[in-house]
Specification:
Length: 300
Amino acid sequence: MDNKKPLFAHLCMFFACAFWGLMAPLGKDAMTHGLTGIDMVTFRVAGAAVLFWVASIFVKKEHPPVKDILLLGLAGMFGLVFNQCCYTIGLSITSPINSSIVTTSMPIFAMLLSALILKEPITGKKAGGVFMGFSGALLLILTSATADNSKVGDLRGDLLCMFAQLSFAFYLSMFNKLIKRYSVFTVNKWMFTFAALVITPFTFSHVSSIAFSEITVKTWLETMFVVVVCTFVCYILTMQAQQVLRPTVVSVYNYVQPAVAVIVSVLSGLGVFKLTHALAVVLVFFGVRFVTKSRKRSNN
């Protein structure tokens, strides 16, 4: 059974990042039809907090000491508040394509922070894997011919999305041991609760002024997908993986996000598949492979 844990962890990260790849176009569409980035991040944090408290009723109860609860609150600042606020608001300003490109910076941040905080060595194979994955993801997006080229990015949004990646990389490295101490439901319950307590007082008046009657069913369904799947489900999957995998390995799966974004645009008729896309997929695959094999298998 233990031999299956690494495989399950890798599958969790793959599907989490695949769903996050869908979040960029769907979330962007919702935020151009009646909702703002502030509204969306409030729904994500508050909605997930409620879902995790409800879910915690049906799982084994854990009672972390006050010190650990406070540490989980601090983890929530970097893993949720700074990360989700900056990314969601940044996405509302810039284009989904640009936000996907920026996500490829996270494994680099994670590799550097893991070396500084966790003293994890930067091997040549690991650095090469990160570079290959970065090159593949970047190539995949930059060579995607889209039907709508009028929507360009915004530097402010790009920088916010990049800061979100740095914040999440810091969370992965700094709180790695704490996250492994408790179940994913206990960790997320407290992280999202603290995040909601921090964010909601500043955003409540903005959310309460939404013209709810003017929001379409499609927009609400997109928002529900972002909250339930891309937040609640994806954070469960990510922390399941984080229990087993190293921060650098977790972060390298970010390269799946832009791949999914391109695939969605191809299937929806917004892009075409080229030979360079096939090359990009190969680079991403071997990039992940090199990073995950940079230490012996027993260390995952």
